[in-house]
Design brief:
Layout: H1 2-13, H2 25-51, H3 61-64, H4 68-75, H5 79-90, E1 93-97, E2 100-103, H6 106-115, H7 141-151, H8 157-160, H9 164-183, E3 189-190, E4 193-194, E5 199-201, H10 202-219, H11 232-249, H12 253-256, H13 262-276, H14 286-299, H15 308-313, H16 319-333, H17 335-350, H18 352-365, H19 377-380, H20 384-396, H21 408-412, H22 457-474, E6 475-479, E7 487-489, E8 493-495, E9 501-506
Antiparallel strand pairs: 1-2, 3-4, 5-9, 6-9, 7-8
Helix pairs in contact: 1-2, 9-10, 9-22, 10-16, 10-17, 13-16, 17-20, 17-22
The protein binds protoporphyrin IX containing FE (HEM).
Length: about 500
Amino acid sequence: METINRVVSALMAGCETSSLHSIKRPQAILWLFTTIVLARTIRRMIFNAFFHPLARIPGNKLVASTYYFVGASTLSGRSHYGIPLAHKMYGKVVRVAPEIVSVADKDMIREVLVTGDYPKSILHEGLELNEQHNLFSSRNKNFHKNRRRLVAPAFGLQYLRSLEPVMHTCIRSLITKIDELLENPKMVKSKNKVLPKGHIDMCSLLMRTAMDVIGETAFGQSFKMIEDETHPVPHQMAKTLKRSMQQTFNPWMKYLLPLDLSLADFGEERVRVRKEAEESDRRSDLLQYLIDAQQHERDEGNGETGNEYEDMISGKLTDKAVVTETCVFLIAGSETSSTAMTFTLMFLVKNPDKLAKLREEIDLATASNDKGAIPAYDQLRNLPYLTGCINESLRLRPVAATVILAQTPQLHLSEEYYPQAKKFIPERWIPGESPFPPVEDFTFYPFSAGTRNCVGKNFAMMEMRLILATLVLNYNLEIVSGQREDYVQYITTALATGKYVIKMKRR
Ligand code: HEM
């Protein structure tokens, strides 16, 4: 208090005439400013901790008084360490910031995601691209309902069948690349380090494959990331993702470091090329589906009104919206499936008995194929052990879980619902083979649930089954021990090192 008085009197009297010669006017202004900001911050924190409407929810008062802690743990990708700890100390419902409550109770999660259909968190708005709401980011129910109605059929099982040849093309490139790398170990580089013969960084290679799959299906053009990693768009996407996350917690960054939207420029160009293409060049993919849906809406009289803002708010499929949604597919659909595949391979090489069992199942299902042929999706889609392995990996490492409000990872790792929860036991998903009681409903949410569940689930399952089965079918896979396996959780989950090496040999 005395310091404030001294500062104020220094300001009032002017620095030279002040009785306090040691404080100059600019210094005094700074002092005053800092003191006011500090006092207001402390007042707000006290209000948040003790008088806020959510103050009675259990949790650490200091953590709940500010967004600092949840922001710092989210930006460092380490929220999966702190939040489970908070649940251990305070129970299934914990307040982790002034207006963020983390829920790890089965019935409440169901209420949040399905029955209550609560709006998405404000964090999702960080993913607005090109100044457009989009399927992933929007918190507006009306917008979402309209947009989902237009986009969802592209991911129906029927339409996805037409994508199988495109996925096969990418898988063929992957196999060619692996064989090339096995032949010529000098080319096998991971993070600019030459790896020993037979060692392949599957984390990087699967990421590049998933990007090529989305490039082919959503933009009608592969990024050819499997061949080399020079295409600028995937790199720019990674930067955009990170920056949009930072901007959510630090909105001032929007002005200092705006998002690089060359991704949208690329999308615009691809849509233009596709629209100008001859009917004979037509191919079925996600991009074509959106273009056809747009035309259908126009023919039905439900097209754009011409008022750009109104059209955006109501979820109309404008040209800009088509571009934005294709960019969302790239963001939502590349790192997710590739990381899920990397984790599945990681668990398999760590559990060679499970890998052998999976191989036996795939060998049997594809016995009539020519040697080296890529399996057809019909041969794989109902294989219980393959699905069990993918589910088990998604349970242990839910790559795109909603981590702030509905703590689905907490359910996945709870001994109450999953005996020996930390172990990779694909059998738990197969009735009759499981050593445990059947998995309870509403305890498994890798693709979320309710109206905001993953629209790309069938696409991802098809891609993962095809790629994982092809790898298991064609290569012996062995663990390379001594690697880091810790992971970070930003918008999606990823290995902290961005690398996972597997020892591979053609069968
Ligand atoms: C293993 C792979 C995948 C996993 C685990 C996954 C998981 C999820 C989850 C948990 C959500 C809800 C996110 C939230 O509420 O914040 C979501 C939403 C979404 N995902 Fe996926 N996803 C995967 C692959 C894909 C693919 C391949 C695509 C597209 C090609 C895709 C497109 C989307 C979109 C557009 C949404 C927003 C849906 C909406 O709000 O209506 N995802 N995903």
